[in-house]
Write a structure and sequence with these properties.
335 residues; alpha/beta; seven-stranded mixed sheet; five-stranded antiparallel sheet; 10 helices; 26% strand
Length: 335
């Protein structure tokens, strides 16, 4: 391996190798030459490589290849998603804040702005091309419909397990190394507790004394430093500061109201009533955001959502009881 293109950190339970993508030579999108060498080494040692890549679709975010900067929503501290339709823009999938797509990086003024998020099927195809068809790859994601017990049997005959899922509950004696192809891709998921999920997932494999390999454009990301150091108290402090600053539980209440129905017109009507009523009833301190248009259809139903954050939302939820609890087209998620 080329030591000048990566560095290893000794953690309490295992060796973590961080591979900075700014300087890595790529064989394919998100697949560096060093990762290929690592996979080949694991297989030659008689073990299996477990690879995480949490994206089914196209580009989910963008990142500056020069400085590693990526835009976050100022309200949610979640990476903006990259959209191309109806026009190029950045959208927060939590509160629907929309920002223009930058021509240059706002931090370093660099022009190497790359979409992040090639789909896992493309990753599988590229690995087969690079490693050869003699290497057996087992892909596990929501597009594969086989039952869990079938996967357990297939793992025994596979050289590489490529998955979108958090598999922290699975332990296999033949796994010889765990690889995260894109650290930033997990961070772009629209969930306020995603950093906690990432920390717990990687900690699980550290406890198994497995070698861990993380590709990233941001090798100095504070979360990654906390993971490498393995100081749980320091991580809790870091997490607490972030949640306090952005009004997330346990320092505030978070409510997501989802309106969903097979009829698009009905969703629009319900949303209009809810938005008007909340606008009248909410306190000045209440963060209130909502989808301005229907941008997705899920399981045959059109969907829009409303996000509320405040120290106390009980008063507002009670006032919305008729619109929420007694309507099958409205679902409430309340932390």
């Amino acid at each position: 391996m080329n030591s000048d293109k990566s560095y290893s950190m000794i953690s309490p339970s295992s060796i973590i190798t961080v591979i900075p993508l700014q300087t890595a030579k790529l064989e394919a999108p998100n697949i560096s030459i060093e990762i290929i060498h690592i996979i080949e080494w694991i297989i030659k040692s008689g073990k299996k490589a477990l690879i995480f890549y949490s994206r089914r679709g196209n580009a989910r975010a963008w990142i500056c290849a020069d400085c590693g900067h990526y835009e976050k929503c100022p309200h949610c501290d979640i990476a903006f998603a990259y959209h191309t339709s109806p026009k190029k823009c950045l959208i927060c999938h939590q509160c629907n804040t929309i920002n223009p797509y930058p021509i240059v990086c706002p931090q370093c003024q660099g022009s190497k702005i790359n979409p992040v998020g090639v789909g896992i099927q493309q990753i599988e195809e590229n690995l087969i091309k690079i490693l050869g068809e003699n290497i057996s790859i087992l892909r596990i994601d929501s597009d594969v419909k086989e039952k869990t017990e079938v996967f357990y049997k297939k793992i025994s005959t596979s050289d590489v397990i490529l998955t979108t899922h958090f598999w922290s509950t699975i332990s296999h004696p033949d796994i010889g190394g765990v690889i995260w192809l894109s650290f930033e891709l997990n961070l772009s998921l629209p969930s306020y507790h995603i950093e906690e999920d990432i920390y717990n997932e990687i900690s699980y494999f550290k406890k198994q004394h497995l070698p861990l390999y993380i590709q990233t454009y941001t090798p100095d990301h504070p979360l990654l430093r906390e993971i490498i150091d393995g100081n749980f108290k320091s991580f809790l402090w870091y997490l607490s500061q972030e949640r306090r600053d952005f009004l997330y539980p346990p320092f505030a209440e978070l409510a997501t109201i989802r309106v969903h129905d097979e009829q698009k017109k009905k969703v629009i009507e319900i949303m209009s009533k809810l938005i008007n009523k909340i606008g009248i009833l909410k306190n000045k301190s209440t963060f209130f955001a909502f989808d301005t248009e229907i941008i997705e259809r899920y399981h045959g139903e059109w969907q829009q959502k409303i996000i509320l954050k405040d120290k106390n939302l009980s008063y507002l939820i009670q006032e919305l009881e008729v619109e929420i609890i007694r309507n099958r087209s409205v679902t409430l998620e309340w932390n």
